[in-house]
Amino acid sequence: MTEIARRARVSPRTVYLHAPSKEGLVRDTLRRRADAIIRRVERWQPRGDTPDGILNELVALHERTYRTESATLETLTSGGVPRDVAEILRELDDVRLALITRTLDGLARRRVLRVRPSEGIALAHALLAYPTWRTALTGPAGRRAPRFVAAALRSVLLER
Questions:
Q1: What topology is assigned to 27-157 in CATH?
Q2: Residue 35 needs a FRET pair 20 to 30 A away by CA distance; which of 56, 72, 74, 160 works?
Q3: Is the pTM of this model over 0.85?
Q4: Domain ranges for the chain
Q5: pLDDT tens digits, 133-150
């Protein structure tokens, strides 16, 4: 906590007034970061109108979120975190699943899905999960990973 106070250029007492423990400070910081991610995900609306464009934008949102919030997401998905911190990840995943569901239900209403909506939602949820992004972006595909994920979703989900 002394190091945190030094870097923040405040007294240790000031830090303890706002966070009585290091664990509380970490939890509160993760909560604020997760809330920002949740707000961004909940506000998302595709700008494009084509089914391909909508899926590409959904993948791009997940990629941007992972790239800009990777430290937060890595901490939340690393395991071994206290129950209240793990709850933050569950909440974030619920919001992400709701977005995927809303998006694919919209495509189903347009009759452009070649699979049942529930199957498409399950596939998109798995391919767009944060641990999958970590593996995809750090693996052999690297920067091409988002393009591959979008192509996989389009080829499986959309009628041609």
A1: Tetracycline Repressor; domain 2 (1.10.357)
A2: 56
A3: no
A4: 27-157
A5: 888 888 888 888 899 999
